[in-house]
Design goal:
globular, transmembrane transporter activity, Growth Hormone, Chain: A, transmembrane, about 425 residues, membrane, mainly alpha, MFS_Transporters, about 0% strand, Major facilitator superfamily (MFS) profile domain-containing protein
Length: about 425
């Protein structure tokens, strides 16, 4: 397997996947609120369930890739997401709509680890691995964020024909992409005798990371990163409603997020690598806290012609914080794991984020119900988020001030090296 044979279709798939995702999913909250008249808590539950179906099942996706093959999981994940978008397009009642939203997340849980596993294989096949791996994964992020810029703009345009047109277009896009990938991706290698799904589950060994108490604490601390990022879809539309802005402003702010990520991801990551984790992570979580602190103050101030300024500042701070803590946390995982069972450790990191989103989206949604009108009450959800991120900043500083404890003993060495597991936030959506 060579980079020429696999990188181009994988990068193209990342671009198309993110166009399709961001054309549909960011508008779910608007449909749930305006068409189904759900409360903020109910919207939070639906969006939390969708996120958990993807991020919370990330470890399962990695296990299935190991047991069944990356190509098969990519095509299966595409089929599941097509089913999810199709269900959203055809839904005429709330249970069906919710089922479609959850299916979209499950599809991502299947194909995200498969995509990045093939990218890692393409990098390893190059004669000189040093310096190449980061470049290929960086390009994966860049093309993905380009899709994240285009997607909301496409979705906002299609929304004039109704959300069914948006979701139906997403289903069509994933269908065409799946057909192309079926022709372009190399066949999965033959699995050795006895290498079954049960064997894959045994090889990943998720129990090892769960017994590493220091890492479990770190995963809980880092869960605030995904929770904060999820507010782009749950909380940001509420604040825009408060200041009298609609879908166009929402799409523009998501484009700002992607533009900042595309231009600054690599410089920020390079700078962060020069500093110790005990400095980088507390600063990053502090940036997340400051982003919500801005909105906590702004929500108590009557909307004016310049009310979009604090929202924009908050989004930029949130993006900076995400760019800082994401690579730093992932770089630290192999140190926790001592190079063993990385799939288990990365999977637990992603699952903790998914659980945080699922559990906390409901109370946050209830608080958002009173945040669409200017008042001190409207500041509560943003103050809560700022407090959680600040707690993570302090906890990270305390947790990392001493050398990390060694992981627990592995009762059995894995049968084969586990493939690199992708970032919880940077894989295809």
């Amino acid at each position: 397997m060579t980079r020429r044979a696999t990188a181009a279709p994988l990068l193209g798939a990342q671009l198309v996947f993110n166009v399709g995702f961001y054309a549909v999913v960011p508008f779910l909250a608007i449909v749930l609120r305006d068409d189904y008249l759900l409360s903020g808590a109910a919207i939070g539950l639906v969006l939390g369930a969708r996120t958990f179906a993807q991020q919370g099942l990330f470890l399962l996706g990695g296990v299935l890739v190991d047991a069944l093959g990356a190509r098969r999981l990519i095509l299966t994940g595409c089929a599941v997401r097509v089913a999810g978008f199709g269900t959203l397009a055809l839904a005429d009642d709330l249970p069906t709509f919710v089922a479609g939203a959850v299916l979209t997340g499950l599809g991502g849980a299947l194909f995200s680890p498969a995509i990045e596993t093939l990218v890692a294989a393409a990098e390893q096949a190059r004669p000189s691995a040093s310096g190449t791996r980061a470049t290929l994964f960086a390009w994966l992020t860049v093309v993905g964020e380009t899709g994240a810029v285009v997607g909301p703009l496409v979705g906002a345009l299609l929304l004039d024909w109704g959300f069914s047109a948006v979701a139906g277009s997403g289903a069509a896009l994933f269908s065409v992409t799946a057909l192309a990938l079926a022709r372009l991706l190399p066949a999965d290698p033959a699995r050795p005798d006895g290498h079954t799904l049960r064997a894959g589950l045994r090889d990943v060994g998720p129990g090892l990371s769960l017994r590493h108490r220091t890492f479990v604490l770190f995963a809980v601390v880092h869960a605030v990163n995904l929770l904060a990022w999820n507010q782009l879809y749950l909380g940001l539309p509420v604040e825009l409603e408060r200041v009298g802005r609609g879908a166009g402003a929402y799409a523009a702010l998501l484009a700002v997020v992607s533009a900042v990520t595309i231009t600054l991801q690599l410089p920020v990551a390079r700078l962060a690598r020069r500093l110790p984790s005990r400095v980088v992570l507390p600063v990053g979580y502090g940036l997340l806290a400051s982003s919500f602190g801005v909105l906590a103050v702004a929500a108590a101030v009557p909307a004016t012609a310049t009310s979009l300024a604090p929202v924009t500042a908050s989004v930029v701070l949130l993006t900076f914080g995400h760019l800082v803590v994401g690579p730093a946390a992932l770089d630290l995982v192999p140190t926790f794991a001592a190079g063993r069972r990385l799939g288990s450790y990365y999977g637990l990191l992603a699952t903790c984020g998914g659980v945080a989103v699922l559990v906390l989206s409901v109370p946050l949604g209830a608080l958002y119900a009173d945040a669409s009108a200017t008042s001190l009450v409207a500041s509560r959800p943003w103050a809560l988020l700022a407090g959680l991120a600040l707690c993570s900043s302090v906890a990270a500083a305390l947790l990392l001030r001493r050398p990390l404890a060694a992981p627990p003993l592995d009762p059995a060495e894995p049968r084969s090296p586990a493939p690199p597991t992708p970032s919880p936030s940077k894989g295809p959506r």
